[in-house]
């Protein structure tokens, strides 16, 4: 490979900038020409390429979001859109793409590679941690800490007023943020999509907490929880426990923002570097990941089909420690 292009796509995540910096600087180090593409796949279609050198990524390691901007591109889901994207790559002589994003981004990259043969390599950037082939995704650690800090603050007010708080955290169909932020903040219950929950179990937990003399409680709910919306759960609890002073807090997009944590900056640097090196070694249609501190390359098809398992041991520990 001689000329590569890099973009950020799908849901943004803290550390995407650090990954971009690593890609651009590694490319420069190995004398590859590097282009940044704005707004994900839309930039490929709209021919929005900018030549990037080491100075174009100065000062961004500390910044949340993505300086290239991200987008969800409907056009790229069409054959015509991908054809236009390919023509633009060909015109500029791009021979490989570094795709920083989540599973949707990788699905797009996989199809693009199969249709046009252009080399692609994925870098997992999403707060949800739902990508197979890496222990953690870029952005997850920062989001987790943001959720933890927010829930700590909610705990202060919950304790002052003897309230029960239902707190919703992000994660789409995955419960990683909920499980770990719930354990870290001492939630009495953690509801995640990977586990079958029932309202009866939740009620039993409240009864146990009451018996143990707990005056306030926090229940952390993953956004993908299947038992019902957080408002439905709060309503059902009020019906079962009319004396409870119940509040709902949906943490929302604050979890996506902020300066990336040290762990995310290090991970992003390793994976951005690994993506460029992987391309130079002739790899394509794979994702760079970090497993047990080793850089590993997983076929993109596998990364989007499989899922990381949550650790049921953590749920058990949180149950024992919370009450
Ligand atoms: P994420 O990468 O965070 O999972 P999305 O699911 O929005 O975010 O995917 C990002 C972009 O990837 C989409 O907006 C679309 O342009 C592209 N994409 C996703 N799925 C496909 C697909 N099946 N075919 C082509 N492109 C896709």
UniProtKB/TrEMBL annotation:
<dbReference type="InterPro" id="IPR015912">
    <property type="entry name" value="Phosphofructokinase_CS"/>
</dbReference>
<feature type="binding site" description="in other chain">
    <location>
        <begin position="126"/>
        <end position="128"/>
    </location>
    <ligand>
        <name>substrate</name>
    </ligand>
</feature>
<keyword id="KW-0324">Glycolysis</keyword>
<protein>
    <recommendedName>
        <fullName>ATP-dependent 6-phosphofructokinase</fullName>
        <ecNumber>2.7.1.11</ecNumber>
    </recommendedName>
</protein>
<keyword id="KW-0547">Nucleotide-binding</keyword>
<dbReference type="InterPro" id="IPR012003">
    <property type="entry name" value="ATP_PFK_prok-type"/>
</dbReference>
<keyword id="KW-0021">Allosteric enzyme</keyword>
<dbReference type="GO" id="GO:0003872">
    <property type="term" value="F:6-phosphofructokinase activity"/>
</dbReference>
<feature type="binding site" description="in other chain">
    <location>
        <begin position="253"/>
        <end position="256"/>
    </location>
    <ligand>
        <name>substrate</name>
    </ligand>
</feature>
<keyword id="KW-0808">Transferase</keyword>
<feature type="binding site">
    <location>
        <begin position="21"/>
        <end position="25"/>
    </location>
    <ligand>
        <name>ADP</name>
    </ligand>
</feature>
<feature type="binding site">
    <location>
        <begin position="72"/>
        <end position="73"/>
    </location>
    <ligand>
        <name>ATP</name>
    </ligand>
</feature>
<feature type="domain" description="Phosphofructokinase">
    <location>
        <begin position="3"/>
        <end position="276"/>
    </location>
</feature>
<dbReference type="InterPro" id="IPR012828">
    <property type="entry name" value="PFKA_ATP_prok"/>
</dbReference>
<feature type="binding site" description="in other chain">
    <location>
        <begin position="170"/>
        <end position="172"/>
    </location>
    <ligand>
        <name>substrate</name>
    </ligand>
</feature>
<dbReference type="InterPro" id="IPR035966">
    <property type="entry name" value="PKF_sf"/>
</dbReference>
<feature type="binding site">
    <location>
        <position position="11"/>
    </location>
    <ligand>
        <name>ATP</name>
    </ligand>
</feature>
<keyword id="KW-0067">ATP-binding</keyword>
<keyword id="KW-0418">Kinase</keyword>
<keyword id="KW-0460">Magnesium</keyword>
<feature type="binding site" description="in other chain">
    <location>
        <begin position="214"/>
        <end position="216"/>
    </location>
    <ligand>
        <name>ADP</name>
    </ligand>
</feature>
<keyword id="KW-0963">Cytoplasm</keyword>
<comment type="function">
    <text>Catalyzes the phosphorylation of D-fructose 6-phosphate to fructose 1,6-bisphosphate by ATP, the first committing step of glycolysis.</text>
</comment>
<feature type="binding site">
    <location>
        <position position="163"/>
    </location>
    <ligand>
        <name>substrate</name>
    </ligand>
</feature>
<comment type="pathway">
    <text>Carbohydrate degradation; glycolysis; D-glyceraldehyde 3-phosphate and glycerone phosphate from D-glucose: step 3/4.</text>
</comment>
<feature type="binding site" description="in other chain">
    <location>
        <position position="223"/>
    </location>
    <ligand>
        <name>substrate</name>
    </ligand>
</feature>
<dbReference type="Pfam" id="PF00365">
    <property type="entry name" value="PFK"/>
</dbReference>
<feature type="active site" description="Proton acceptor">
    <location>
        <position position="128"/>
    </location>
</feature>
<comment type="similarity">
    <text>Belongs to the phosphofructokinase type A (PFKA) family. ATP-dependent PFK group I subfamily. Prokaryotic clade 'B1' sub-subfamily.</text>
</comment>
<feature type="binding site">
    <location>
        <begin position="102"/>
        <end position="105"/>
    </location>
    <ligand>
        <name>ATP</name>
    </ligand>
</feature>
<dbReference type="InterPro" id="IPR022953">
    <property type="entry name" value="ATP_PFK"/>
</dbReference>
<feature type="binding site">
    <location>
        <position position="103"/>
    </location>
    <ligand>
        <name>Mg(2+)</name>
    </ligand>
</feature>
<comment type="subunit">
    <text>Homotetramer.</text>
</comment>
<feature type="binding site" description="in other chain">
    <location>
        <position position="155"/>
    </location>
    <ligand>
        <name>ADP</name>
    </ligand>
</feature>
<dbReference type="InterPro" id="IPR000023">
    <property type="entry name" value="Phosphofructokinase_dom"/>
</dbReference>
<feature type="binding site">
    <location>
        <position position="247"/>
    </location>
    <ligand>
        <name>substrate</name>
    </ligand>
</feature>
<keyword id="KW-0479">Metal-binding</keyword>
């Amino acid at each position: 490979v001689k000329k590569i292009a890099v973009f950020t796509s799908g849901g943004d995540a803290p550390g995407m900038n650090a990954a971009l910096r690593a890609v651009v600087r590694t490319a420069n180090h190995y004398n590859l020409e590097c282009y940044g593409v704005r707004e994900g796949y839309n930039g490929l279609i709209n021919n929005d390429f900018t030549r990037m050198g080491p100075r174009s990524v100065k000062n961004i390691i500390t910044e949340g979001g993505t300086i290239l901007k991200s987008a969800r591109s409907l056009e790229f889901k069409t054959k015509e859109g991908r054809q236009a994207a390919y023509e633009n790559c060909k015109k500029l002589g791009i021979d490989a793409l570094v795709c920083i994003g989540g599973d949707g981004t990788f699905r797009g990259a996989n199809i693009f590679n199969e249709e046009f043969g252009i080399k692609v390599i994925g870098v997992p950037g999403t707060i949800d941690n739902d990508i197979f082939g890496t222990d953690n995704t870029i952005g997850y650690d920062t989001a987790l800490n943001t959720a933890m800090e927010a829930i700590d603050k909610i705990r202060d007010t919950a304790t002052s007023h003897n309230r029960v708080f239902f707190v919703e955290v992000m994660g789409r169909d995955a419960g990683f943020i909920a499980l770990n932020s719930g354990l870290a903040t001492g939630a009495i219950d953690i509801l995640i999509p990977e586990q079958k929950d029932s309202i009866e179990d939740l009620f039993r937990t409240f009864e146990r907490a009451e018996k143990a003399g707990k005056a306030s409680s926090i229940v952390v709910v993953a956004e993908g929880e299947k038992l019902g919306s957080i408002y439905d759960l709060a309503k059902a609890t009020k019906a079962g426990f009319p004396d409870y002073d119940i509040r709902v807090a949906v943490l929302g997009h604050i979890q996506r923002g902020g300066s990336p944590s040290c762990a995310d900056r290090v991970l992003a640097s390793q994976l951005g570097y690994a993506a460029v090196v992987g391309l130079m070694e002739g790899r394509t249609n794979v994702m760079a990941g970090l497993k047990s501190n080793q850089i590993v390359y997983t076929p993109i098809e596998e990364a989007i089909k499989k899922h990381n398992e949550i650790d049921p041991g953590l749920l058990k520990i949180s149950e024992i420690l919370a009450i």
